[in-house]
Write a structure and sequence with these properties.
Length: 59
Amino acid sequence: MLALARGIYNERAFDRMPILADTLQDAGGINEDVLSHCRDTSLAHVHGCWVVDLLLGKG
Ligand SMILES: [Zn+2]
């Protein structure tokens, strides 16, 4: 899951955000806000997306 987040960050592969959401949901204990943010395709996930930052401990 961290590797996935890191890959998204490093490769700016923000089209993988919904996949990350699924992975996070499977892991459990994840805030609904995080999941809905990842799955919101109307959002442009920029470099520095707070969800990715949160996962990578950059926030
Ligand atoms: Zn985002």
